[in-house]
Write a structure and sequence with these properties.
18 helices; seven-stranded mixed beta sheet; binds glycyl-adenosine-5'-phosphate; 31% helix; 540 residues
Length: 540
């Protein structure tokens, strides 16, 4: 049975009401594309980043042959030498095609605009633009086409066909017959122009061209430029990965769908360096590891869609990329949570060219292993014997890179969408009442347990307070003694607390408490001393 689609407005309202996500600078009217995480949101997002760090950096799954994975972390500065972004190609090419509307003054991503072709019996035939995936703009475009038909005395049925704006706008003359999404007259859209997404700033007191710097649009480049530092300062050998979690900034033309496309967001990226001959094996490994990670944290497999990019979508240096996509409720099509890309030797090669530094890897183990087959132990001397390229690359090469690049905010949004549920549960009198419950995986839940004294007397608050103080050393827990216990359960359900622990009359007699499970509603009696272990077990 198909489940009803979540109404995003309900989720947005819950997130604001319960302190998950606020609009940035809300009291000043907000600022488009920027968001703040409230007290519960910050716990949720931190749990996500911590789970990623624990599962990918400190304790990654075993490799394809059952071997330990070598992984280290890094935390780079947000502003880097601007030459980094020239080498990476971001200064020249990190741009989206953009279209302005001269009348409405709105700006659109040209590659996200689609067109309805108006009815051909009407002269002139017009095209009506709307943003792909935006149902209300599509409806507007349809209405405009029907209105034009009525004005010409025609009664035309049927839905006009959608076409990509970029395709039609290749012929600049056609712009004159395109009606923009937010206007009623044709000819107001400009030709698409490349718009660089990097935020620019100046370093130092003088705002001149030589002081221009950029807020990083991805964390990956910090890893590439530190590749040699990490190799020289730690005992890692290839294959190994470097991981980083941090802010990235993109001046998105059209931030939308809540936090999905923001201008400031956090990435969780791994650059995994390996021998070129093993890169496909590692690409497949990371693609599977990353998909499984989302499933383990409660994303239903029906909503999770890994999609291998077509050859025409791939970056020119990439041999393969899989987008791990999620069926967000605001879209008819799955949307990217993470890209797992085979980047070949592109990035290190670029940084070698631009910095003049040698970023090749020397496999000392392989070199020493083959010592008996050579006359010399000096690599330089051996090179003078003109060995074949494949022979050299057994020992010295530019590593290939597999890059699993995830968005912490996108996954937080997916977790919120996935967790949102409405059901009916019996109240104190056994009557069914509506319940809004966030079914977070216990590992991600912002609050792990609530401690509830049944009444505020008879020594129950003291017992509850003792347990609260003990548990808060280990997890984020809440103490709640306000109102009927049923209402307190509802409050905790709404923020997704997996366990409610009630201190009642029996606790005073035998030091046992009840643990209520958020999802099954079952209550079990356990000893107070065992509560910590019960919660630990559920967190896995
Ligand atoms: N280093 C590769 C890289 O940055 P990307 O596909 O541009 O690749 C990786 O970004 C991930 O970062 C995306 O899968 C997404 O989760 C997140 N991301 C990218 N742009 C974003 C935005 N404007 N708002 C929120 N998350 C974004």
């Amino acid at each position: 049975m198909a489940t009803a689609k979540l109404d995003m407005e309900k989720l947005v309202s819950l997130c604001r009401r319960r302190g998950f996500i606020f609009q940035s600078s809300e009291i000043y009217g907000g600022i488009n594309g920027f968001w703040d995480y409230g007290p519960l949101g910050v716990e949720l997002k931190k749990n996500i980043k911590d789970a990623w760090w624990q599962d990918m950096v400190r304790n990654p799954p075993l490799g394809p042959n059952g071997q330990e994975i070598s992984m280290v972390g890094l935390d780079c500065s947000i502003i880097m030498n601007p030459k980094v972004w020239e080498a990476s190609g971001h200064v020249g090419g990190f741009s989206d095609p953009m279209v302005d509307c001269k009348e409405s003054k709105k700006r659109y991503r040209a590659d996200q605009l689609e067109l309805l072709q108006g009815h051909q019996e009407i002269v002139p035939t017009l095209y009506y633009a709307y943003t792909k995936g935006d149902e209300s703009l599509l409806k507007d475009a349809l209405k405009k086409a029907e209105k034009a038909a009525r004005a010409s005395g025609k009664k035309l049925a049927g839905t006009p066909l959608g076409q990509a704006f970029m395709q039609v706008a290749k012929d600049a003359a056609k712009l004159a017959i395109i009606v923009g999404p937010d206007v009623d007259v044709p000819g107001t859209l400009t030709e698409p122009r490349a718009f660089n997404l990097m935020f620019q700033t100046y370093v130092g007191a003088v705002q001149s061209a030589e002081n221009i710097a950029y807020l990083r649009p991805e964390t990956a480049q910090g890893i590439f430029v530190n590749f040699k530092n990490v190799l020289d300062s730690s005992r890692v050998k290839l294959p190994f990965g470097i991981a980083q979690v941090g802010k990235a900034f993109r001046n998105e033309i059209n931030p939308r769908n809540y936090t999905f496309r923001s201008r400031e967001f956090e990435q969780m990226e791994i650059e995994f360096f390996c021998h070129p001959s093993e890169s496909m094996k590692w690409y497949e490994y990371w693609r599977d590891v990353r998909k499984n990670w989302y499933s383990q944290l409660g994303i239903k497999s029906d909503n999770l869609k890994p999609r291998e990019q077509g050859k025409d979508e791939l970056a020119f240096y990439s041999i393969g990329t899989t987008d791990i996509e999620y069926m967000f409720p605001f879209s008819e099509e799955p949307q990217e949570l993470e890209g797992v890309a085979h980047r070949g030797a592109y990035d290190l090669t670029q940084h070698m060219k631009h910095s003049g530094k040698d970023l090749t890897y020397m496999d000392e183990d392989a070199w020493n292993r083959d010592a008996a087959n050579r006359k010399t132990n000096s690599f330089k001397e051996w090179l003078k014997t003109n060995p074949a390229k494949e022979e050299i690359e057994k020992y010295q090469y530019v590593p290939h890179v597999i890059e699993p690049s995830a968005g912490a905010d996108r996954f937080t949004l997916a977790v919120l969408c996935e967790a949102y549920s409405e059901d009916k549960v019996p109240d104190a009198k056994g009557n069914l009442e509506e319940r809004l419950v966030m079914k977070f995986h216990p590992r991600l839940a912002p609050v792990k347990a609530a401690i509830l004294p049944l009444v505020k007397k008879d020594g129950m608050p003291e017992k509850a307070d003792g347990l609260y103080r003990e548990l808060k050393k280990h997890f984020k827990v809440e103490y709640d003694d306000g109102g009927a216990v049923g209402r307190r359960y509802r409050r905790q359900d709404e923020i997704g607390t997996p366990f409610c622990i009630t201190i009642d009359g029996d606790t005073l007699k035998d030091d046992t408490v009840t643990i209520r499970d958020r999802d099954t509603l079952q209550q079990r009696r356990v000893s107070m001393a065992g509560v910590l272990e019960e919660i630990r077990k559920a967190l896995g």
